[in-house]
Amino acid sequence: MNYKMKYGREKVEIKIPDENLLGIIESNAMDDNKTEEEVILDALENPIDSAKLSKIVKPGERVCLVISDITRAWQKMGTYLYYIVRELNKGGVRDEDIIFISATGSHRKQSEEEHRVLLGEKLADRFKVIDHVSTDEDNLVYLGETSYGTPVKINKMAMECDHIVITGAIVFHLLVGWGGGKKSILPGIAGYETIMKNHSMSLNPEMGSGSNPETKSGKVLNNPIHEDMLEAVNFVKPSFMFNVIMDSNGNIAHAVAGNYIKAHEKGCEIVNKIDGIPINEKADMVIATAGGYPKDINFYQTIKTVINAREAIKDGGVMILLSECSDGFGNEVIRKITQDFDNVVDREIELRRDYSIAKYIGYYVSEVASKTNMILLSSMNPEDLSMANISVVKTIDEALELAKKLKGENLKTYLMPHGANTLPKLI
Fold first, then answer.
1. Which of 274, 294, 325 finishes a domain?
2. Dihedral sign (CA 183, 185, 188, 191)
């Protein structure tokens, strides 16, 4: 049979013999037919391990609303923020006592138009957005050090408020297990030194030992990045959390609110039920796509699909990635670490010398490519990734023919049409 998978703004037809198809790894449906407004209001009315937000705040108090940046506009914060502000107003908090800080982490500052997108039509004319700048030491306050030795520096304006309310979306995350929750604080409104010290635990302690297997999607137990991050956020103690969970159509399907630890744990359970997909065996070949544009807009974003597909493939197997990368690498640092070195050890040395998230992404994809036969269906120049042992092709037929040359015929195969979201779990 023929299967169609998204690539850029198009779909690619894939022909796999039925006897070779182990399965199609897709999300489980958990829709309960609520509108987005009903989902949002239900979460705010029924907070987890917490009073309602309107009962927590008092008139005259200053509230900092921490919101995601434009790279996460897919979570539709412009839809749900209005209801959170309305809840604050109900508790007697005036608009002039509410500040919005965008949790940019180490990302760039944003335009006024992007701020309006974040706030949504109902709030864009009522409020301004302040971009957090992780390198602005004058606007950071030192709170202490975690047991992992991470110096905790947090946005001063946020800490000067009576309450901090964190918002965001929960998805699987490549380093900390799940996104959302505490990530609004670290890396969201943390200092650059804090962010890099925390994220550097994505590597094993010993030089040459590569990436840390404890820091991965869907894992928090013994995950040092998660544990360190939680310790850091416990210095801050946000008063309230509101996080959404999106469906495969990009709509708000679920939401959790309340205590920043307990509500987030509940949200992670929901994500796991939807996108944590059990498999009985690993495959000889995995064909995965992020889900088309904009999820495959650049190589930077491709990491999400690589990490999930890796869980479904045998060592030495074939990984075919459908990722158009119309904007190329998406970050010059990734290009440099993939092209300036011809082996993973030298890349690791460079990463440890001066750690950054972009470097880690380039390093990790190269590390996976050293253990699998990675084929990238992409608009990128094949020479751009040749040093990283990644074969770039222009058609799916070319990819399948190359797979046959590398590993032979009759390869047991999984298809992952939403590879950036679905996490295979071997049972």
1. 274
2. negative
**N-to-C CA span, the chain:** 27
Task: Tell me phi and psi for residue 17, to 5 degrees.
Answer: -55, 135
pLDDT under 70 in the chain at which residues?
A: 31
Count of the separate structural domains present in the chain: 2
pLDDT at 330: 84
Please report the pLDDT score of residue 31 as a whole number: 64
Confidence at residue 327, expressed as pLDDT on a 0 to 100 scale: 87
Positive or negative, the CA dihedral 339, 69, 262, 427 is: negative
Q: Is the pTM of this model over 0.70?
A: yes
Backbone angles phi, psi at 241, to 5 degrees: -130, 140
List pLDDT tens digits, range 17-51: 999 999 999 988 776 789 999 999 999 999 999 99
The set of residues, in sequence order, having a beta carbon less than 8 Å from that of 151 and lying 6+ positions away, is 142, 145, 191, 193, 194, 197
- Picking from 236, 237, 238, 242, the residue whose alpha carbon sits closest to that of residue 84 is 242
The pLDDT value recorded for residue 206 is 86
Question: Can you say how many angstroms the Cα of residue 31 is from the centroid of all Cα atoms in its chain?
Answer: 22
Is residue 195 within 8 A of residue 188, CB to CB? The reply is no
- For residue 137, what are its two tokens? 């030491």
Amino acid at 132: H
- Tell me which residue range forms the domain holding 351: 2-27+280-426
Residue 236 sits in the same domain as residue 313: no
276-279 and 423-426 as β-strands: parallel, antiparallel, unpaired?
Answer: parallel
139 and 257 fall within a common domain = yes
The domain that holds 386 is classified in CATH as 3.90.226.30
What's the helix, strand, coil split of the chain in %, to 5?
A: 35, 25, 40
Residue 126 confidence (pLDDT): 94
Query: Which sign, positive or negative, has the C-alpha torsion 390, 391, 396, 401?
Result: negative
